[in-house]
Amino acid sequence: MTHNTHHDLSRPNASQFNGVVLGYTQLPSAATDLILLGDLTGRYATGSYSRLSSDGRTVIPRGDRQGAAEHGHRITAAIACHVARAGGSIDQLTQLLLHPEHEGGRHTRHIALRSGQTRALDYIRRIWNSASKTISTTIALSSRHDAYEILAALRDRIETTPWRGERGRTALRVLRAHLNFAEIAGGPLHHASERQTAEEAGVSRTTLRVIYETVLRPRGWLRRLRVGHGREGSTWYLGNGNIAGHGGPALLSRFRSTQFPPDPALGEWTTSETATTADIDSTVLGNLMGHDAFAHHGLGSAALMIISALHVHPDQTVIELVGTSSVSRATTYRTLKRLADHGLVQHTGETWNLAPRALEGFGIPLPDADNSHTPAEGWANIAEQHGTWGIAARRKALHTAERAAYQEALSRLGEHRSKAVVIVRDGRQVLIPAPRPDEIPPAWHTPDGRVLDPLTGRPATDWRVATDGRLILITPSDQRSYDELAAAHAEALSEWESVA
User: Which of 23, 156, 367, 415 has a CB 3.0–4.6 Å from the CB of 466, allowing a cystine?
Assistant: First the structure.
């Protein structure tokens, strides 16, 4: 007996839909459960009850009312996306959200009760417009096989899209890193931090942000759905790259340039030097881009493009390489000479090919190569010759230190530590901790932070010592601040003394 995961809403079941007649054809079972029962699994609660502070580094909790409102907004947006995906209308969405027995519409009904029906209808209209726009730019995936087909089609499009200029080639590296993460995740929706992506693409974090804002996001290749915070990475979605985007937003360099755009009437810049389509192997590019040899001052991104193009189609002339790799003619000649000096490419007449073990970084001696260069013996050897050896390790060490500092800040926030006073005396910064009534002697706790009961000498499960040496109470439900704990302690002590 097969189980249908979709429910036919054109034929309502009174026991299942409470007698409400809905006008759509089908909705997934997850959508109907969300409409009727609400978010029972807490899927849409993640991140609703916390937010980034103004400095963009630390996470602070939202108030109960704000967290509940954010949670309800996410549920409402999910329902709107389900209705839009099923071909419904805004009137049907309104009927679903305002029905008194549908738990998924609680947030919308609360707005109507608090601010009036008109305000609630405006809110539904905004949610519907946003959902319709989102659905038009995304694809419904019914199985893991469909997801891999989408990623394969996206990879083919990336490999045949010309990525002109140094910024375009760097954007390809970043996009290929996200494609690696998406293939591991099993779909266009994936999670990754900026540091993780920078290490995968072999670029700096600053370059990563510039590429995202100026190339990938404006041209529809990548969208950040949610900024990561805490121990969670950002949520990303891979797009197809809209055609209009390639001639749309100008890059930052155009705004800082005094050069006028070409005049078609004068015949200036009639055609691009590179072709309108490319043909590279992005898998080869993705495997090589993390090596130090392809850093900015090493072989560079142009070498990645040429190696990837020659791997797909050997025996290419320079003119053909200009088209397949999207690298300008001058850069192609310069890059081929650099690769030939290391013995990674060889030419016969007018055509060029990769050396037998070029993808491993091993070159072969060429009779017409520059005598100052010896055949490469691996990517590490090439990086040492160009002075780029160790860049990836230093970047990774920097990111590790940044992660440790961030985790320490999160731990201090979780301990509800108050701000200490810092004064400068004789050129030195002196930390003066705020006075607290919950200090305990050092003999009452262990080095790992566990609190010892002075009567039994055994560790107390609900108490712990923070890194500033002060006593804190750890319970799942108690999220009070230090001031609230101190006030509760003083009140309990006063009550105990009055009773005694």
Answer: 415
